[in-house]
């Protein structure tokens, strides 16, 4: 029998499915639950165990990992008679890898402590490709001892794994990450439209730009999306809209001005309002094209 901790995984979406599969490849016993049957079938095919409910998934787990879209979903799976806190055993470690508000993470840690359950907020950056390749950046909030216990598990999911401070700190750093990513994508999108309207070879231009100071992980990851107008979702506009709301609200609470971030948040919101919420966030290019007179 394996001496590795038994893991329950709740939420098997674009990120959750490949992440859970990487844990299985690393030798962990993973029991999963999500609402979509095809995602459960995928987990079973990868060697995981399928549960019929949250309660069934978490009852024997040493570690519970959650990866769901937003704060309301984290609260829905965590609280109540059928939720994680009522059904996980005392002493279990709950690692929430969703991107939610810092306050939601603080509140969850407080409620879990009353049940004898330890909590880390551990949101990630790197998108679907980073999840598949197990090279995610993982920003963690919580206690040092819990971080140390979780680190071997997190090392099967990512490359850069950092304890950023107490509960909620991981979510605060993730909010800053989403601010930087959105502004970067917007700048790249504007450059793409400028280059194309100027008649420049876009492939050549992006290659040389990415080799200099203008280069970035965003441009590396999203260059083909721009070139091919391929906006199959790796990270949906809907989710980035949620995250921009988190960062602008959190910044207001601490008195930080985000003038450029506020503009990009509105551009993300407008793209969503035009029906593009299900597209990859590189689809910010479509908003710039519309503003520049293109029929998109």
Automatic annotation (TrEMBL):
Sorted UniProt keywords: NAD, Oxidoreductase
Keyword Metal-binding: no
Keyword Oxidoreductase: yes
UniProt cross-references to InterPro entries, sorted A to Z: 6-PGluconate_DH-like_C_sf (IPR008927), 6PGD_dom2 (IPR013328), 6PGDH_NADP-bd (IPR006115), HIBADH-like_NADP-bd (IPR029154), HIBADH-related (IPR015815), NAD(P)-bd_dom_sf (IPR036291), Tartro_sem_red (IPR006398)
Highest taxon of the lineage: Bacteria
Segments forming domain 3-hydroxyisobutyrate dehydrogenase-like NAD-binding: 168-287
6-phosphogluconate dehydrogenase NADP-binding domain sequence ranges: 6-165
Similarity comment: family membership: Belongs to the HIBADH-related family.
Name the UniProt record assigns to this protein: 2-hydroxy-3-oxopropionate reductase
Origin species: Streptomyces shaanxiensis
């Amino acid at each position: 029998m394996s001496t590795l901790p038994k893991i329950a995984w709740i939420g098997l979406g674009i990120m959750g499915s490949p992440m859970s599969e990487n844990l299985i490849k690393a030798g962990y016993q993973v029991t999963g639950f999500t609402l979509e049957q095809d995602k459960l079938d995928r987990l079973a095919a990868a060697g995981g165990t399928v549960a019929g409910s949250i309660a069934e998934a978490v009852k024997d787990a040493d570690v519970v990992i959650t990866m769901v879209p937003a704060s309301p979903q984290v609260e829905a799976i965590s609280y109540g008679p059928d939720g994680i806190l009522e059904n996980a055993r005392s002493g279990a470690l709950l690692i929430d890898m969703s991107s939610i508000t810092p306050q939601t993470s603080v509140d969850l840690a407080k409620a879990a402590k009353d049940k004898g359950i330890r909590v880390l907020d551990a949101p990630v950056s790197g998108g679907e490709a980073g999840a598949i390749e197990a090279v995610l950046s993982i920003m963690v909030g919580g206690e040092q001892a819990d971080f140390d216990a979780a680190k071997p598990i997190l090392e099967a999911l990512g490359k850069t794994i950092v304890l950023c401070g107490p509960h909620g700190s991981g979510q605060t750093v993730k909010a800053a990450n989403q601010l930087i990513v959105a502004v970067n994508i917007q700048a790249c999108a504007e450059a793409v439209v400028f280059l194309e309207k100027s008649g420049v070879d876009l492939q050549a231009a992006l290659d040389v730009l990415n080799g200099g100071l203008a280069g970035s992980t965003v441009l590396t990851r999203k260059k083909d999306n721009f070139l091919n107008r391929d906006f199959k979702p790796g990270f949906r506009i809907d989710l980035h809209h949620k995250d921009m709301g988190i960062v602008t609200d959190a910044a207001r609470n601490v008195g930080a001005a985000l003038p450029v971030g506020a503009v990009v948040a509105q551009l993300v919101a407008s793209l969503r309002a035009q029906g593009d919420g299900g597209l990859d966030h590189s689809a910010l290019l479509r908003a710039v094209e519309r503003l520049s007179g293109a029929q998109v």
